[in-house]
Design brief:
Length: about 500
């Protein structure tokens, strides 16, 4: 009886295990089939949404409601590409910037965990995976996370596209702007990216007509944001717009550190004429004055300069950009605050900069490493441009894996030296640590001191920072390097002092 009992029990256990494995295999096959179906639907929806977005971008849309709808469609499209690329390259998926209101405590815990781990990135998708706590299988949890994010991306695009019938009809009523055909990576590489809504907000302020009989007053728009976030670039692109150039007879730029001790006369002498419309013969035509300063302005200086606006023509405008929030008080309208790009928008920009015309799906391991780098560097435009130069020259898994390691060590070393993470959008009152990303065992490191701007016509150092990272140049001691050269207006050069030290 004992032998019979043991044999029966063994048979039952064997069958139970077989049924379990079979059920699990069937479940995995069903999940794989469902994931592939969602991927196909997502690709189809992205093709449709991209067609609408590209068509809208080549037309001169001025309706505010349509612009907001276009912005929402663009965000959903970028989100879709982010999910698609993450699934194809096997990267961890998170919720992007879409956090629920009840997740504030989780955000604090994540921020503290990031600080201790030296990742310190508000964009790290691996730290935002939300999966059911009841499942103990890591593979099942990851599969569930992918399916959930795919469903959300598909549902979001389907909802947006379902509401686009009237949008497309009205879109055809706007005249197309003549533009040469372009590849996506060439467009991203040579145009301002991700600031369409901010640009239209400035355009509405500049082109707003004054009601009849309104008192003469100089309109002032403050634009604030951290260093290297794109304030100057945004204003420059606005001033290049033909609508602005035809609206104002004269566009003046004032680019100095502050306005202290400036008089009305000295201020006008230091202004640079950005554009002059010869079609306006009268001296009483509208003016646009752009003031770019780093810090705050005292009340007395501002009141003295602003009072000179009484002599300007009706409808003249002024834009003031600064890193200081204090300039908001000088505005006659709500200030425009520039922030970092969303996770999805920055990834789209970064992958186009790094991969160019190549499809990241053809290089899943490299794409996964690129997503990790993008999540660590907090939306830095300079990293996307500087790093892309090096990564394209060393287009292999070994070099990119080493680059990820170097970035993590860069974060860790800066925290250990300075007590906090330092990035490209903070004021540089102290140096920051860096080293080569290509040398496997560096015996030297360098400190980068303040990054400052120089105009396109000014002399700049011959050694680019990308050569330091790639070990193409190994100078000694202290020297200036060309940190980054912008390829879009106003074509600024960013220079910093580099100091080589032994480890």
């Amino acid at each position: 009886m004992e032998m019979l009992y043991s044999a029966a029990l063994g048979e039952l256990v064997s069958r139970a295990v077989s049924f379990f494995l079979l059920a699990k295999r069937e479940e995995q096959a069903a999940a794989t089939a469902q994931e592939e179906e969602l991927l196909q639907r997502l690709r189809h929806l992205l093709l449709r949404s991209c067609t609408v977005v590209e068509e809208a971008e080549r037309r001169l849309v001025t309706n505010g409601a349509m612009l907001r709808q276009l912005g929402a469609l663009r965000d959903e499209t970028l989100r879709g590409y982010y999910v698609l690329d993450a699934v194809r390259c096997g990267a961890s998926l998170g919720g992007g910037d879409r956090r629920k209101d009840g997740d504030e405590n989780n955000q604090k815990e994540e921020a503290e965990a990031s600080r201790l781990a030296f990742a310190l990135s508000r964009f790290n998708p691996a730290k935002r995976v939300r999966v059911p706590s009841g499942s103990g299988d890591p593979e099942a949890r990851e599969s569930g996370a992918r399916l959930r994010e795919l469903r959300q991306a598909v549902r979001g695009l389907e909802d947006m596209i379902g509401d686009l019938k009237e949008f497309v009809v009205f879109l055809t009523s706007y005249p197309p702007m003549h533009r040469q055909p372009y590849s996506a990576h060439m467009f991203v590489d040579n145009c301002m990216f991700g600031r369409d809504m901010e640009k239209e907000r400035i355009m509405q302020f500049l082109l707003q007509t004054e009601p009849p009989g309104a008192p003469r007053r100089l309109g002032v728009l403050p634009i604030v944001g951290p260093a290297h976030i794109g304030k100057s670039t945004l204003v420059e692109h606005v001033c290049y717009d033909e609508r602005v150039r035809s609206h104002f007879c004269l566009i003046l730029f004032y680019r100095h550190n502050d306005l202290i001790d400036e008089t009305v006369a000295s201020f006008r002498e230091k202004c640079v004429v950005k554009h002059k419309n010869d079609n306006h013969a009268s001296s009483r035509q509208r003016l646009l004055i752009v003031i770019e300063i780093l810090e705050d302005v005292d009340e007395e200086t501002w009141n003295r300069l602003y009072s000179s606006g009484r002599t300007m023509a009706h409808g003249s405008r002024m834009i003031v950009t600064s890193r200081s929030e204090n300039i908001v008080r000088f505005g006659t309208t709500h200030a425009l605050r520039l922030k970092c790009l969303s996770t999805e928008a920055y990834w789209y920009f970064f992958k186009m900069t790094v991969f160019g015309s190549d499809d990241p799906g053809q290089h899943p391991k490299l794409a996964s490493l690129a997503m990790e780098m993008a999540s660590l560097m907090q939306g830095s435009f300079s990293f996307a441009n500087i790093g892309a130069v090096v990564l394209r020259d060393y287009f292999n898994i070994q070099s990119w894996s080493r680059a990820v390691t170097r970035i993590r060590e860069y974060l860790q070393k800066n925290v250990s030296l300075f007590g906090e993470y330092t990035d490209d959008i903070k004021d540089k009152d102290r140096p920051r640590f860096t080293w080569s990303i290509m040398n496997q065992k560096p015996d030297k490191y360098c400190l980068l001191h303040n990054v400052y701007e120089r105009g396109s016509q000014e002399d700049v150092p011959e050694i680019p920072y990308s050569d330091i990272l790639a070990m193409c140049a190994q100078p000694r001691g202290e020297y200036d390097v060309l940190f980054w050269r912008s390829r879009i207006p106003p074509y600024l050069n960013y220079v910093c002092k580099c100091e080589i030290r032994d480890m």
